[in-house]
Amino acid sequence: MHPYLEIRRRMLDKAMRRYVLADIAWRQGLEQAALLVPGAIGRGYLMIGNPGSRVRRLYDERDRALQRLTAARAKLHEARGRVRVDRRILLIARG
Predict the structure, then answer these.
(1) Which residue intervals of the chain are DSSP H helices?
(2) Could you tell me if 94 and 68 are in contact, meaning their C-beta atoms sit under 8 angstroms apart?
(3) pLDDT for 22-55, tens place per residue?
């Protein structure tokens, strides 16, 4: 694999791990909140709490991790496109 792509791939892996950990923490926070406030999780809606609350903080961390993951995917895709362009060979026939 091209060294530049390897770097981008490692960034994507790291962003994915961070997102998964943030998602697990957020879901556990929701479960704990549901024990304290039974109506916090309903059909099709979810209360994420006031600014500064633990559940809101976990939600914001998960959202930032998702944004980083999306950016890492886009950068890897862009890098793959650049490497493919670099591999083209131009043949010129002399007559």
Answers:
(1) 3-36, 54-86
(2) no
(3) 999 999 988 888 888 776 666 655 667 777 888 8
CB 15 within 8 A of CB 74: no
CA pseudo-torsion sign 57, 59, 61, 67: negative
Which amino acid belongs to residue 42? G
Spatial distance between the Cα atoms of 78 and 70, rounded to a whole number of angstroms: 12
**Residue-by-residue DSSP string for 38-63:** GGGEETTEE---STTSHHHHHHHHHH
- 3-state class (DSSP) for residue 71: helix
> What burial letters (b/e) apply to 37-67, b meaning 16+ CB within 10 Å?
eeebeeeeeebbbeeeeebebbbebbeebee
How far is CA 12 from each of CA 33, 43, 68, 71, 85, rounded to the nearest angstrom? 31, 33, 9, 9, 22
Contacts of 41 (CB under 8 A, 6+ apart): 30, 33, 34, 47
